[in-house]
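Handover notes (outgoing to incoming on-call)

Open items:
1. MOSC domain-containing protein: sequence verified, structure written out, both below. Nothing else pending on this one.
2. Nothing else urgent.
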Amino acid sequence: MSRFSIEQIFIYPVKSLGGMAVSRAEITSSGSLRGDREWIVTRPNGTMLWQGDIPHMTLLSAQLENGRLIIVDRDGEFSPRAEEGGGVTVDLEGHELAGTDQGDAVADWLSHRLQSACRLVHIGRQAHQWAGLNPVHAISTVSLHALNKRLTERGEAAVELKRFRPNVVLSGTHPAFAEETVEEIIFNGASLSLREPCVRCELPNISLEDASRGKQPLKLIGALSRERPSARPASFGTYCTAYGQTLQVGMSSSEV
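MOSC domain-containing protein structure tokens:
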């Protein structure tokens, strides 16, 4: 039997930028977390930009303070004026969503730091309603420890959990990768329904220190996935749907 606890919760106000740790998060009607990925960095033509296009995005982070967005890098921060620009259409992975451009000032600030022309668009509630939504991404510290043990045995550096951009970090008394095999984790007042293992893109290979691209941990993740019948190719962590009103750090599950 396995027991899970919520060790950390993160939301990422701007898609593909770094996020913020929170002690509790409101669950939306779609099973996602309020405030998560409600802004998108786009090209001037409205197509989404992500770290695969511009690895330097990993060096920027976004925070919400009383509903106000603040974007931070190592040299300063910028807070766009809410709903400053006009209505635009965003191409999000082939899905067209209506949004509000956040104005020239933040576009210039981001374009300078990312060395590429871009805009910032607020899509708000649509972030939790579009057809491609994967509501919550969870990883386990037990599974991360197993991955890092194999990395260090090969002479590779251990990888930080933030490279995986989780919403929920689970810990507890469960075997490594048990989160791939349980159907539901029930907490007091909330639950996580496990949908499918998360197939990784290249983002975990991008350094949080200098945005350089490496080969690990994705290469090893692919090898470890082949050892587990419950895994999908190159998968680590799981996509989930949350139910209830809120998720909170410290919640512990019943045995599963």
